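Standup notes, structure subgroup. Blocker cleared on the guanosine-5'-diphosphate input:
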Amino acid sequence: MEEELFCIGCGAKIQTEQPDKLGYTPQSALEKGLANGEVYCQRCFRLRHYNEIQDVSLTDDDFLRLLNELGKADALIVNVVDIFDFNGSLIPGLHRFVGDNPVLLVGNKVDLLPKSLKRGRLTQWMRERAHEEGLRPVDILLTSARKSHEMSELLEKIEEYRDGRDVYVVGVTNVGKSTLINQIIKQTAGVQDLITTSQFPGTTLDKIEIPLDDGHYLFDTPGIIHRHQMAHYLGKKDLKIIAPHKEIKPKVYQLNAGQTLFLGGLARFDFIQGDRASFVAYVSNDIEPHRTKLEKADAFYEKHVGGLLQPPRPDEVADFPELVRFEFSIKEKTDIVFAGLGWVTITKPAVVAGWAPKGVDVLTRKALV
Ligand code: GDP
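Run returned:
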């Protein structure tokens, strides 16, 4: 039997097969490490040498353990969400796990939303949605980790609300948590040695500890995987296309009942019944919507998916999940949300259907804009 090795940084069992799992280290690095007598997993190696945080995924049991830890700790919980994919970035039941600990809600990627959208309105909207989920954040902050916006405000709020306690940063994958943590490290740590990783040989690493100046820690926990995010159904290239890079330019369509709007080949919106009205699509500027007649839409999709309707790309069509239909009867101004892709705002009462790849949620919410 092969000898079991553990990372000297975090104690995770070293493995060379699965890059996105705990304890991964490339074979070549492992050999080097063995030669120097210092075996680190890639994640700890990068953290030590580049001050960089890497994503790893955990099993459901590990997550449950982690979430349970939140309630037992006396700490400030910083919950990072992607404001562009708000529903896809909520952690189901988080309020039950946090116990009495205060939660600071951070809406990241605010750079993607139209500037015309008032920030006060946005935080109010987030507060209402959080309350619907049973979460009562002590405060809400909008950030752009990528553009390094509001980072000092974030640090000030963390300092204020942690009130001498530890901090746990939690979020589902892809909300920009690593980018945000890396920004925090940059802002706070001039010295590389300030960042250390815990040493409990034989245990599994499930978080990274960033020491704070009063002997407490900021814990970065691994991103929690949300299975209904669109991201899990797409190739890396398509993900790049659907994830907006810049401020979204809303696209307005005047539609009659009996018309369909395709969002590339990723999603479909049917206007089934109602008076002629405007519909506003908020998706990456790189996704081209196509309008067609509802009665011809099935055939149109069959014929053009992977071609005129991209993504998916031609070689991905075979593996791309079929679109599943959700019908809604709309009474007031509402967003039909395609988890992770964007949304369509409906301005008047209507019967509509939203289609998304099997496994991806389509839901309605009070209009954001
Ligand atoms: P994590 O899985 O939550 O750790 O997310 P990452 O930090 O790996 O980021 C996921 C993706 O979102 C990457 O493509 C980032 O470049 C992007 N991202 C992170 N923060 C921002 C932000 O503030 N604005 C925008 N537009 N993109 C961001």
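Discussed briefly. The longest strand covers residues 75-82.
Next: hand off to the docking folks.
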